[in-house]
Amino acid sequence: MKCYIAGRISGLQEAEYKQRFYEAKKEVENLGFEAINPIELPHNHGHTWEEYMRECLIAMLECQTVYALNNWRYSVGATIEVNLAVSLGINVVFQKS
Question: pTM of this prediction?
Answer without folding.
Answer: 0.94
